[in-house]
């Protein structure tokens, strides 16, 4: 364990044998393991230096692995000690080895990173451009297409300033977590750092928030797919009676069978190509929507009813949406760990946040100016009803459908670790099939998604307030306060961020739920069939003078 920190410090209990232990390809003979050594073939035998039981066990382990390099031994040393001793690390926050990771090592979850786990082991991590693209994939989701409706809720000026402020807090919070990771010998996940700083209960709370925000993303994707597939069916059927009466929940139930089997695939490497296809579809869809906004402005001019400065009636909803727009905070530590030049990660993160803020402000402002108070929660539903727009909606819905397994995997990995279905030493591993845990969790997320099928903005705001704000800047601030040395002003800043995060979490959640329950606003129909349109009133002929 000492050698895991420095190769110059000898182990305390078996330092007399360190030369033999680190002899590279040294093989321990059976005579040595029996405690007898042969002196240069003279036939005389002498007793060796007394060894501790742990030293004998380590020599036996070396006999089983005769050709082991020093680097590999230093990498696997602590795990080998735990196996030989039959004990667990006392500082492990959650079960075996303290592994509560966003991505499960047993499931090849690093395979989506360029180079894969083999490249990481050889020191060939992701390059800076690759990390830039991965960060964009982590942050950009369905939140961007809800921004025009969010700008309508809060006001354009207030929304733009709030997005810039939120991006600044996110960047600072990730940098704080990286400092804490460096103090912990460049190891640890988000939950592990929280447990080291404030104990196991706090680490468990961070894990719960991670499961909640990832599960909230999956629920939002389910609602988004249901709404857009329904709009596509109505457009293709020219708003026939059967498609007009089709509810969003019914479409969600039907599309569930398409992505549910993909969530049972445990190796994420199989989603590398679908993930690339999904990102291409998202970029094409966003570009098409932006061009449609410009066409709407050039044809009809500025819409009516958009608040320029501030809207006092719906700003609380957008506060939660602004946090949800940066939904990849919990993935920054694994992404940073995969970099070849980790010192460049902060610059890459700042560049990504600046690009996202500028893009979000332009997209949200243009959509709000184009549609005004008629902007729907998902701006795709504002597109004119024709086959081309229906194809864009279907393509975007397909991209989100392919992204559901990637958002589902981090949450289910933590849940499976809680239950113990991944640990062969637990009762759950022998009695509970892992597929049943995944199916039950998917059905729970589907049930939660049905509650927000007609109020997706409110649903996203609650998810952002309950989980996004604590993970975004409240928890990193208090972890950084405990683990790192800093000047007094930064300590005050950490305390302020934690207190402000807690207050905003309670305030936004209560305000959004109150508006959601007391003032329900069902989603308006996306089309009006001919059989519901009022007949034209015949006009009387003009009377000649």
Polypeptide structure, described:
The protein is mainly α and 545 residues long. It has helices at 18-21, 30-33, 53-64, 70-85, 116-121, 128-139, 147-154, 156-183, 190-198, 200-236, 241-244, 248-259, 272-300, 315-324, 332-337, 345-371, 387-419, 427-431, 434-451, 456-483, 488-518, and strands at residues 37-38, 45-46. Helix 9 (190-198) packs antiparallel against helix 10, helix 10 (200-236) crosses helix 12 (248-259) and helix 14 (315-324) crosses helix 20 (456-483).
Summarize the structure.
This protein is mainly alpha-helical and 545 residues long. The longest helix has 37 residues, at 200-236. It has a two-stranded antiparallel ribbon with strand order 1-2.
Biggest sheet record:
2 strands, antiparallel
Mean pLDDT: 76
Span between termini: 107 Å
Question: What share of residues are in beta strands?
Answer: under 5%
Helix segment tally: 21
Radius of gyration: 29 Å
Uncertain runs:
1-58, 68-76, 78-123
Helicity level: 55-70%
Oligomer: single chain
Structural classification: mainly alpha
* Number of DSSP-assigned strands: 2
Order of helices and strands: HHEEHHHHHHHHHHHHHHHHHHH
Give me the side-by-side strand order of the main sheet. 1-2
Shape by Cα distribution? globular
């Amino acid at each position: 364990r000492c050698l895991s920190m420095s190769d110059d410090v000898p182990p305390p209990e078996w330092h007399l044998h360190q030369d033999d232990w680190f002899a590279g390809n040294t093989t321990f003979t059976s005579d040595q393991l029996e405690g007898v050594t042969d002196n240069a073939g003279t036939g005389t035998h002498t007793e060796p230096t007394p060894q501790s039981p742990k030293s004998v066990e380590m020599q036996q382990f070396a006999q089983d692995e005769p050709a082991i390099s020093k680097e590999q031994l230093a990498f696997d040393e602590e795990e080998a000690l735990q196996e030989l001793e039959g004990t667990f690390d006392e500082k492990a926050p959650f079960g075996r080895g303290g592994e509560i990771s966003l991505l499960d090592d047993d499931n090849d979850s690093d395979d989506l990173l360029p180079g894969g786990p083999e490249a990481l082991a050889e020191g060939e991590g992701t390059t800076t451009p690759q990390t830039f693209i991965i960060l964009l994939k982590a942050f950009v989701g369905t939140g961007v297409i809800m921004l025009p409706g969010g700008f309508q809720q809060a006001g354009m000026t207030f929304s733009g300033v709030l997005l810039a402020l939120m991006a600044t807090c996110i960047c600072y919070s990730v940098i704080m977590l990286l400092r804490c990771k460096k103090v912990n010998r460049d190891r640890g996940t988000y939950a592990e750092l929280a447990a080291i700083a404030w104990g196991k209960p706090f680490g468990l709370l961070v894990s719960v928030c991670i499961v909640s925000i990832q599960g909230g993303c999956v629920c939002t994707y389910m609602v988004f797919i249901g709404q857009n597939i329904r709009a596509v069916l109505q457009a293709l059927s020219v708003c026939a009676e059967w498609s007009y009466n089709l509810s969003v929940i019914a479409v969600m139930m039907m599309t569930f069978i398409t992505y549910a089997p993909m969530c049972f695939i445990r190796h994420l490497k199989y989603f590398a190509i679908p993930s690339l296809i999904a990102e291409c579809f998202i970029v094409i869809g966003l570009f098409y929507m932006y061009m449609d906004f410009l066409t709407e402005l050039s044809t009809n001019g500025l819409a009516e009813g958009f608040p320029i400065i501030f809207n006092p009636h719906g700003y609380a909803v957008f506060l939660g949406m602004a946090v949800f727009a940066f939904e990849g905070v919990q993935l920054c530590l694994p992404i940073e760990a995969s970099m070849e030049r980790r010192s460049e990660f902060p610059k890459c993160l700042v560049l990504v946040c600046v690009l996202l803020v500028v893009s979000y402000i332009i997209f949200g402002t243009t959509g709000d100016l184009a549609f005004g108070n008629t902007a729907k929660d998902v701006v795709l539903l504002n597109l004119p009803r024709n086959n081309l727009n229906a194809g864009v909606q279907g393509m975007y819905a397909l991209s989100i459908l392919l992204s559901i397994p990637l958002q589902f995997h981090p949450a289910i990995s933590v849940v499976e670790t809680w239950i113990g279905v991944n640990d062969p030493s637990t009762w759950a591993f022998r009695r509970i099939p892992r597929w049943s845990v995944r199916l039950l969790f998917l059905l729970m997320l589907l049930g939660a998604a049905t509650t927000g099928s007609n109020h997706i903005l409110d649903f996203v705001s609650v998810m952002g307030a309950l989980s996004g704000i604590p993970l975004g800047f409240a928890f990193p601030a208090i972890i950084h306060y405990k683990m790192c040395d800093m000047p007094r002003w930064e300590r005050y800043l950490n305390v302020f961020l934690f207190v402000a995060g807690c207050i905003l979490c309670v305030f936004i959640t209560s305000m959004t739920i109150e508006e959601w329950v007391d003032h329900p606003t069902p989603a308006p129909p996306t089309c009006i069939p001919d059989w519901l349109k009022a007949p034209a009133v015949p006009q009387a002929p003009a009377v000649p003078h």
